[in-house]
Amino acid sequence: MSRPAQRHKLSRTRDQRRALLKGMAESLIIHESILTTKPKARALRPYVEKLVTKARVDNQHARRLVRSRISTDDSLRKLFETIGPRFADRAGGYTRIEAAGWRRGDDAPMARISFVSTDTEESQSTVGVPATTDPVEPAVKPAPAKPAATKKSATKKAAPKPAAKSAAKKPKEALA
């Protein structure tokens, strides 16, 4: 028997998850790139891509559908006036998730989710920049690597520790 596909639950209730995705989607639309944990970025991607698909066609029905998913006027305006037209000719895949290391406190995998740039933006950004084939010399030369320390063999036993002299323990002869 087939089962429906499991969604990203993110250890939250339905209402908490909806509020989280709504807030993250608004931030992504306003800033066009956000840093978050990898599971949250993977859950956010289909949410935002469906909004962008609806925003490609600017009409009242699409605005009302998107308005039910995001609430701020600024994010709604930016989605329909800049982001939607930017991806009007693209058939999907509006966002990119890039690994960004691990968070210091709990070692959670971090990721940066951002909108992909269009082909015209990429070609304009590289116009007039000369291609260099010469290797760039580093400003500071790295220090030579230290040789790896060898481990002591497991069969050797540590030397016995010398017995500590204690003032509390005196021979019986000294007490008499």
In a few lines, what is going on in this structure?
This protein has helices spanning 14-31, 38-55, 60-67, 73-86, 119-126, 172-175, and strands at residues 33-37, 95-102, 109-115.
Average pLDDT works out at 82
Share of residues in strands: 5-15%
User: Strand arrangement, largest sheet?
Assistant: 1-3-2
H/E series, N to C?
A: HEHHHEEHH
Q: What is the number of strand segments?
A: 3
Low-confidence stretches: 123-136
Q: For this entry, what is the oligomeric state of its chains?
A: single chain
Radius of gyration over alpha carbons? 30 Å
Q: Per the principal axes of the C-alpha atoms, what is the gross shape?
A: elongated
End-to-end distance: 90 Å
* Secondary-structure content class: alpha+beta
Helix content: 25-40%
Work out the helix count: 6
Characterize the largest beta sheet: strand count, sense, and whether it forms a barrel.
3 strands, antiparallel
Please tell me about this protein's structure.
It is elongated, with a radius of gyration of 30 Å. A hairpin with a 6-residue loop joins strand 2 (95-102) and strand 3 (109-115). By secondary structure, it is of the alpha+beta class. Helices cover 40% and strands 11% of the residues. Helix 1 crosses helix 2, helix 1 packs across helix 4 (73-86) and helix 2 (38-55) packs across helix 4 (73-86). The chain has a 3-stranded antiparallel sheet with strand order 1-3-2.
Layout of helices and strands, plus pairs?
Layout: H1 14-31, E1 33-37, H2 38-55, H3 60-67, H4 73-86, E2 95-102, E3 109-115, H5 119-126, H6 172-175
Antiparallel strand pairs: 1-3, 2-3
Helix pairs in contact: 1-2, 1-4, 2-4
